[in-house]
Design goal:
It is a single chain. This protein has one domain. By secondary structure, the chain is mostly helical. 19% of the residues are buried. Helix 2 crosses helix 3. It contains 5 helices and 2 strands; from the N terminus they run E-E-H-H-H-H-H. It has a two-stranded antiparallel sheet with strand order 1-2.
Amino acid sequence: MRTFSVNNHLYQAREFTFNLLCDLEDQNLSLDEIDRKPMSLVRVYLAFCGNISKEKAGEEIEKHVENGGSFNDVIEAMSEQMQNSGFFRSLNKETAPEASETSSESQKSKKA
């Protein structure tokens, strides 16, 4: 299982399952917002991995960065878990064609 370190604490990375995505939504972080709110995603992900509050996770990240650390470990762990998640990959396959269809349809209506 993948681990990462924040502020000298070792955390076990959580897989991106349906339940984790629901937990993210419960924290007002939908799939649509993940790209727009990377700091919030890192904080909430750490909170879930460490079974700590968002506030405690934020404090840990802040101390980690103040002591010379970076977000790279957390981001790499999250990315790896997203890539290895069958559910997350399947979910992205479902949404990708819809986005391209919508884009194609809007371009057709612009040409008309």
